[in-house]
Amino acid sequence: MNALWTFMEENKWIWTALFVGIGVFLCFLGRKLFKVTIFIVAATLTVFGILLLFYTTFLKDTTENWVGWLILVCSILIGLVVGFFVTKLERLGAALIAGWGGFLGGMLLNETILFLAQATWLFWVVSIGCAIIAAVLSFFFFEHVLIIGTAFAGAYMFFRGISFYAGGFPNEFTLAEELKDGVDGVFSGWFYLYLALIVAMSIGGAIV
Fold it and tell me: How far apart are CA 137 and CA 78, in angstroms?
């Protein structure tokens, strides 16, 4: 996946703008503007999934930059179409929103506690497991899960977007490998400040 991180690093202004903008919207208006939230989350997950698929199978970190741009544009167009159709299925949309929040929660859990295991497989098991649990809970505790899920997902994305420029937030997907390889300075005081701010913004978003 080095090619994906290289592409993101070279164009971090895009991800900063997207993460910060989407993060603020999800945190404070995610439940209020439910249809728009479904559209954004479905489109975002589609783009994210397509990028992961291509960068983990076909593309290398020596791939021309224009190829990354082409895949990004195509994935966005596909994401817009998927987002439009998912808005017609509110329960599925709610499950996707909750699942997205759960996945981000799983990543944060890995970064705060489970990173000690230094196992990449554990990262995926926990993150996907949290996503499934949150998605299932959305069918039983619709309002509560949506409010908490959108508030947390928005806060996480907001500060993750800021970290693309400010730094101090380790890469969730490569953390286990970096620790295993003995990379120094993976965690810093900034990371724990991010955690505190994410929690505080999540509470504020849920109240709103």
Answer: 28
Structure token digits, residue 159: 């500060």
Over the stretch 26-67, which tens digit does the pLDDT of each residue have?
999 988 888 899 998 889 889 888 888 887 777 776 667 777
CA separation for the pair 102, 12 (Å, rounded): 25
3-state secondary structure the chain: CHHHHHHHHHCHHHHHHHHHHHHHHHHHHCCCCHHHHHHHHHHHHHHHHHHHHHHHHCCCCCCCHHHHHHHHHHHHHHHHHHHHHHCCCHHHHHHHHHHHHHHHHHHHHHHHCHHHHCCHHHHHHHHHHHHHHHHHHCCCCHHHHHHHHHHHHHHHHHHHHHHHHHCCCCCCCCHHHHHHCCCCCCCCHHHHHHHHHHHHHHHHHHHC
**Do 175 and 41 contact (CB within 8 A), yes or no?**
no
Instruction: Specify the residue for token string 């990354």.
Output: 68
Amino acid at 164: F
Reading the block at residue 30, the tokens are 């995610």
The answer to whether 145 touches 138, Cβ cutoff 8 Å, is yes
- 46, 75 in Cβ contact below 8 A? yes
